[in-house]
Structures are given as C-alpha cells and as structure tokens.
Write a structure and sequence with these properties.
Blueprint (H helix, E strand, L loop, with lengths): L2 H17 L7 E6 L4 E4 L7 H11 L8 E2 L7 E7 L2 E6 L11 H4 L1 H11 L29 E11 L11 H9 L6 H8 L3 H13 L3 E11 L1
C-alpha cells in the first residue's frame, strides 16, 4: 500500500470515529512541521494557503497537546498531537465546540501518523540574514514580526439552538457570543455585564450541557 493510501486509510479511521462524536461530518487534514500536506480533504482546499502559512509561522508556538481555533466564525481547528505534524479538523455546520471532541481521541492516531512522516525539523519563521555581494545601496532593514501564543478560557456552544428553546435576555446574549472566539472577559465587555455574573450564567449553562469551557491557544503579533 502506498503512502498516499495509508494516509487515506488514517483519514477514514479518524472521520468514522470522530463523526460519531460530532453534530456534523468532520473533514480532516494532516500537515507536517514543514508545511507540507500529507493528506487534505477536498473541503479544506479553500483554506489551503491559510493552513500552510499558519503552520509555518506558528508550529513552534504550539505545545504538544495544544490546539488553536484561529478564524472567528469558521469551524476550523488545529491540533498538535505530535512534534512533527498538525491535524486539522473542519466542519461545515454546527457549533464550533464540537471540533474539540477530537482532543479526546487524537493520541490514538498519533503514532501511526508519526511513523509515516518520520523525523523532520519545523521551518523557522525567523528572518535569516544571508551574505550578498556587490551591494550598491543600503536598504532599510525589514521589520521582524514576532509572534507569541497565549491561552484563553473560551466558552463553546455544545448544542445547536432552535426556535423552541427560550432563554432569559442575558442568557441569550451570552449564548450568541459562545462562538469559540470570545473569552469570558470579551463576553462581559460586549454585553456590559459584570464578569462574575457572566461566569455564573456560563456555569449554569455548562451544567445543563449547553456550553463547555476550553483552554484555547491564540496566536498574536507583537
């Protein structure tokens, strides 16, 4: 069996197992530390360039076991189960929190993928200075953009809300902002409620299974 077929079989295993844990069908991508796709579902093609650039710039910022959901409003999550690759999970619909179900099972596939990829070194995102000859003029140095990661506690919607459910006004406002991009602080600021009250409502929603809170790695520029 070729390497391409082996990665396809791994994709099928992930899709079947993860699909039973999600509200909608998952689509999978596997990209190594050098930014090379080893497998990519067709549904990820619109995000191909973004995924490659994200991997090259941020691979070293993510710790083993971390994940990142960098695009607001898009169900696209990056997981790092191994130091040689990232797994991307995408869904077309449903709450963004459903993607985090993969965190529970990602280590089941790590060893098999790692053995196929082998040992590689991530591409450094730092600018390298190389010697040049016959420099006629002095150019202004390029600005180096530094990246760092920070962890935020972000509430995710775990169920799809229908017109049948009725919530109090404050609760409904909070649920609308549990989209995977807003932290508790962000929500409190946007709806102009005390943080303690927002945390209390979120805890109540968490007990009822409407939301869950996860540690999300966000990549920021300095």
């Amino acid at each position: 069996m070729s390497e391409e077929q082996l990665f396809y079989e791994i994709n099928k295993d992930i899709t079947n197992k993860l699909g039973s844990l999600m509200f909608s069908r998952p689509y999978i991508g596997i990209i190594d530390a050098n930014g090379k796709f080893r497998y990519m579902s067709n549904e990820l093609i619109p995000y191909k360039d973004y995924i490659i650039n994200f991997t090259i710039k941020n691979f070293n910022l993510l710790q083993l076991g971390d994940y990142s959901i960098p695009i607001g409003g898009v169900n696209l999550a990056f997981f790092k189960p191994d130091n040689n690759f990232l797994i991307i999970v995408h869904s077309k619909k449903g709450p963004i929190g459903q993607l985090l179900a993969f965190k529970k099972i990602m280590n089941e596939f790590s060893q098999k993928i790692s053995s196929l990829i082998g040992e590689i070194s991530p591409i450094s995102n730092e600018l390298r200075i190389t010697e040049t000859t016959a420099v006629k003029k002095v150019e202004e140095p390029k600005k180096v953009v530094k990246h760092r990661s920070r962890a935020r506690k972000v509430p995710f919607l775990m169920k799809e809300i229908t017109n049948k459910e009725k919530f109090k006004i404050d609760t409904a406002k909070i649920l609308e902002l549990c989209d995977g991009t807003n932290s508790v602080d962000d929500i409190a600021q946007k709806i102009k409620l005390p943080k303690l009250k927002v945390e209390m409502i979120i805890r109540q929603l968490q007990k009822k299974g409407w939301v869950n809170i996860h540690r999300v790695i966000q990549i920021v520029n300095e």
